[in-house]
Amino acid sequence: MATPGILGRKIGMTQVFKEDGSVVPCTVIEAGPCRVLQVKVKDVSELPDGDQKALVNHGKRRGKHERQRRADGYYALQLGFVQRSGARTKKPDAEHCKAAGVADGGSYYFVREIRFDGLPEAKRGDDLTVAALEGIKKVDVTGTTKGRGWTGAIKRWNFSRQGMSHGTKKCHRHVGGTGRTYSTAKGVPKGKKSPGHYGVERVTIQGLEVVRIDAERNLLFVKGAIPGPPTGYVMIRKSIKLKG
Amino acid sequence: MDVIRKLENEQMKRDIPRFSVGDTVRVGYQIREGNKERIQYFQGTVIAVRGSGIRRTMKVRRIVAGEGVERTFPLHSPKLAEINVTSMGKVRRAKLYYLRTRVGKATRIKQIFGKTYDNGPADKGDAPSAEAS
Questions:
Q1: The whole model's pTM is what?
Q2: Do the Cβ atoms of B77 and A21 come within 8 Å?
Q3: B63 or A55, which is more confident?
Q4: Number of Cβ atoms within 10 Å of the Cβ of A15
């Protein structure tokens, strides 16, 4: 089963000429290499032999005990992207990554799970590169949008502006009426769209066409825009809208 | 941003001749007619050059049958076959949009005679090669 996803970092946008002269707007993503930090499995028996037991620390008095490891209940690969030095790593992270063969107590800045339908082929400690996406036509890209701070309802919710003239008094970009009247007078409805913090949300753009895969330089070109600023971390997965 | 610049550089043409706004150019652009491909020529005045890197384009204006026609050519497009500078113009503006409001004789641009661009190897590494001297 081919790997349905990888982690990456947005580099920026450019354009690519197709052979027929048409221009494709592209986002360039530095995708991988990602280290497989953990393989999540449905059943304990699917874990590698050495991993079926876990060492549990019960404290000073009762000491350490081995016990059967619990299954995760689903299949996934936990991937790490962009290595962090040992000096910047917390100890639990370092131990976790050490099992995946990361040297000198290092860990990763960006760790995410990619779900699988069945048991993934990749093993802990493997490195995934962008070449794993070869043959995938469309991808979904998940990222964190740019922060826009406190934002009015026009930008945040696509409200309409009020008239600039015809007697509008200093409320050209205001929300407008919010309450209810008469028999349904219960004040402002819950969840009413209003100004507030906007951006820094997890957003997935579905069905982005894969334009080019540059395995040598770990670059992925997708058609169109993706969330977040350049250097923003993103998760790239095979599009769920793709059949098969 | 540097990676983007580098990627664009790889795709950019190295052999774009020098020209500048105000010049009269003859542009060959590959077009497709049914199954046949041929080069269509468009001659006119360069009224604007905009964009940088691979996004650089030029606008060429000419009068066809009394009607002003403007075409935008992406300089690095694989369909752009050739650019020939037929005459050099002397202008004091980067964008000659004022030509749109002019008709007839007033659309003429002062010409520079007896001079041509030094069209040696125009490649200057990552500098846009369409830059006029």
A1: 0.79
A2: yes
A3: B63
A4: 16
Secondary structure (3-state) at A154: helix
Q: For residue A38, which of A12, A8, A75 has the smallest C-alpha distance?
A: A75
CA distance A182 to B41: 71
Distance, in Å, from the CA atom of B76 to the CA atom of A7, rounded to the nearest integer, reads 32
The answer to whether A15 contacts B54, with C-beta atoms less than 8 Å apart, is yes
For residue B58, what pLDDT band results from cuts at 50, 70 and 90?
Answer: very high
- Taking phi over 0 as left and psi of -120 to 50 as alpha, with beta for the rest, B65 belongs to left
Quick one: which of B31, B37, B92, B85 has its CA closest to B58? B85
Give the nearest chain A residue to B53 (CA atoms). A14
Q: How many CB pairs under 8 A join A and B?
A: 37
Complex ipTM value = 0.72
Signed CA dihedral, A117, A121, A124, A130: sign only? negative
What token pair was written down for A204?
A: 């997935």
Using a 10 angstrom Cβ sphere, with 0-12 exposed, 13-18 middle and 19 or more buried, the burial of residue B65 is exposed
Residue B11: per-residue pLDDT: 85
A14 → closest Cβ in B4, B30, B32: B4
Contacts of B76 in chain A (CB under 8 A): 17
Confidence label for A244 from pLDDT (cuts 50, 70 and 90): low
Cα A91 from Cα A85, distance rounded (Å): 12
Q: What angle do CA A219, A223, A227 make, to 5 degrees?
A: 80
Sign of CA dihedral B109, B115, B120, B122: negative
Return all residues near A135 (Cβ < 8 A) that are at least 6 apart.
A2
Task: For the beta carbon of residue A130, count every other beta carbon within 10 angstroms.
Answer: 24
pLDDT digits (tens, 9 = 90+) for A91-112: 888 888 888 888 788 889 999 9
Please name the residues between 77 and 106 in chain B that touch chain A, using a CB distance below 8 Å.
Answer: 77-79
CA distance A18 to chain B (A): 8
Is B68 an interface residue toward A (CB < 8 Å)? Answer: no
